[in-house]
Design a protein that fits this description.
The structure is a single chain. It is globular, with a radius of gyration of 22 Å. By secondary structure, it is of the alpha/beta class. The protein has a single domain (9-399), classed as Alkaline Phosphatase, subunit A. α6 runs parallel beside α9 (274-304). The strands form three sheets. Strands 1, 2, 3, 4, 5, 6, 7, 8 and 9 form a nine-stranded mixed sheet that branches. The protein has helices at 34-42, 56-65, 69-72, 88-94, 142-149, 183-197, 239-243, 247-255, 274-304, 365-373, 387-390, 415-420, 469-485; strands at 9-15, 44-50, 100-103, 132-136, 203-208, 311-317, 340-341, 343-346, 354-361, 402-407, 428-433, 437-442, 448-451, 494-497, 500-503. The protein is built from 13 helices and 15 strands. The protein starts with 8 loop residues before the first strand and ends in a 5-residue tail after the last strand.
């Protein structure tokens, strides 16, 4: 442990769509993440960390605000984030930093604060209020593509560069760009240049796209893993059998399109062969290894510059990736693989070396950094500070379950609403996952109950089994109690008295 300053450098690293089990420090069957493992040895690894929602925008809203989806109300990509909420960037700015972004935040700005013709109204890929931007990398990737053109890839004018060989075909073939020219390397280079310019404590958010699709990665990572490497898939014998689990599972399989995962592909994921699915998972593992290597570059550069003992590092993902489990790719729904994500925090002021196996949430990161920086969030927080865990202690009355939400409404097209015959506000689910069971409550569809002790692959719905009636009731009541305890308390914690306003933030 070193003597860290009161205001350390803050490095928030996010890798998009990284499953929580894909760390060698947690004993994955084939993935090797030596640089993240080294960070975990120097810090605290949270082995049961969960996203608050999916996909990207809802998940990041929980990460950036410390709120559950039931409060921040970012339901889908494109749902605006209410400008009244505090967030990590604004908190850092109050603490004296100029928080700077490398990558993206996938935030839709509050349209009530914008003029009718503002171009920001046409995209969800805006920047979280409070951040300065050094390197923006939206989904079209044009800044990276122009950088590639300046590096002897003169014909690189579109994202077709992600389609090695025959466009739309599943393969482990390497793209034309090298390991030194990936989007991850591009953002890492930009951050390292910026860091060398800083003369005061800094706050940087590196938001890496990978291992988000399309599934393609340069050598040597493209062939680092073989199809079939890793644990067995968690799934039924066929996609058709999987669809029998629940009406939502059937709909999700029917909506899961290949084009979201292989550039130029057509058709449904369920049409891929088992070999193709296994090949894509192997490429996904290689993409994880590529990000891990770039994180190693960052750590080495910080150490070489004498910054390491002054830098607090948070590494996490926004949400997970199905990677072929349950005959699905992507994220969303209710399965474990979509929401279990990595989290490690390395604070130079703490000894480190801890592995925490209590349930933690993306909503915990905002209050954790707030406490570390000596700043109070402006308003309600659903998460709790993780700092006691960094010191090797478990906070009193810590949660006994993970909680996440998924809103599958389709405001623009009404696809889900028409399929299920439901209004938009009933197209949602909430999951409560404890040590032994997972209960999934739908606002407009039948519930699910999994006995994880006997069915860790989540293949048998016990919600209608009379033998589990007491378990179902107990978990339904626990979910209702959680929701009742977490509505926005911003003004509920204040009362006007003869002496003026009195505020008492809810304790634990």
């Amino acid at each position: 442990m070193s003597d860290a300053p009161a205001r350390p450098n803050i490095l928030l690293l996010t890798a998009d769509q990284w499953r929580g089990d894909c760390l060698s420090v947690l004993g994955h069957a084939c993935v090797r993440t030596p640089n993240i493992d080294a960070l975990a040895a120097a810090g605290t690894l949270f082995a049961r960390h969960y996203a608050g929602a999916a996909p990207c925008s809802p998940a990041r809203a929980s990460l950036y605000t410390g709120l559950y989806q039931m409060n921040h109300r970012v339901c889908r990509n494109g749902s605006p984030l209410d400008d009244r909420f505090d967030n990590l960037a604004r908190l850092a700015r109050r603490a004296g930093y100029d928080p700077t972004l490398f990558g993206y935040t996938d935030v839709s700005l509050d349209p009530r604060r914008l003029a009718p013709g503002d171009p920001h109204l046409t995209t969800y890929e805006q920047v979280l209020p409070g951040f300065s931007v050094r390197e923006l990398l939206p989904e079209h990737e044009k800044p990276w593509l122009s950088w590639l053109r300046a590096r002897s890839h003169a014909d690189t004018t579109s994202r077709d560069i992600h389609a090695p060989g025959t466009k739309g075909v599943v393969s482990r073939q390497a793209p034309l760009y090298s390991a030194e020219e990936t989007q991850t390397a591009y953002l890492t280079d930009s951050f390292l240049r910026w860091r060398s310019e800083q003369e005061a404590p800094w706050f940087a958010h590196l938001s890496f796209l990978r291992p988000h699709p399309p599934f393609v990665v340069p050598a040597p990572y493209n062939t680092m893993f073989e199809p079939g490497d890793g644990p067995p898939f968690a799934r039924a014998a066929s996609a058709a059998a999987e669809a029998e689990l629940h009406p939502f599972a059937a709909w999700q399989i029917a909506q899961n399109r290949q084009s979201g995962f292989v550039h130029g592909a057509e058709g449904l994921v369920r049409d891929w062969s088992e070999e193709e699915i296994a090949t894509l998972r192997a490429v996904y593992y290689g993409m994880i290894a590529e990000v891990d290597a770039q994180i190693g570059r960052i750590v080495a550069a910080l150490k070489a510059a004498g910054e390491w003992d002054r830098t607090l590092v948070v590494f996490c993902s926004d949400h997970g990736e199905m990677a072929g489990d349950h005959w699905l790719f992507g994220k969303g729904g209710f399965f474990e693989a979509s929401y279990h994500i990595p989290l490690l925090i390395r604070d130079p002021a703490e000894a480190g070396g801890h592995i925490v196996r209590r349930f933690t949430s993306a909503a915990d990161i905002m209050p954790t950094l707030a406490e570390r920086l000596g700043e109070s969030p402006l308003g309600h927080q659903d998460g709790r500070s993780l700092r006691p865990f960094l010191k090797g202690r478990t906070p009193a009355n810590w949660r006994e379950a993970a909680f996440w939400e998924f809103d599958f409404r389709d405001i623009a097209e009404g696809t889900a609403e028409a399929h299920f015959g439901l209004p938009s506000h009933r197209c949602n689910l909430a999951a409560l996952r404890d040590e032994h069971f997972k209960y999934v409550h739908f606002a407009g569809l039948p519930p699910l109950l999994f006995d994880l002790s006997r069915d860790p692959q989540e293949r048998e719905n016990r919600a209608e089994d009379p033998a589990y009636a007491t378990v179902r009731l107990r978990h339904a009541e626990a979910l209702a109690a959680l929701r009742a305890a977490h509505p926005d308390q911003t003004l509920a914690d204040t009362v006007l008295t003869e002496a003026g306003p009195v505020t008492r933030r809810g304790g634990w």
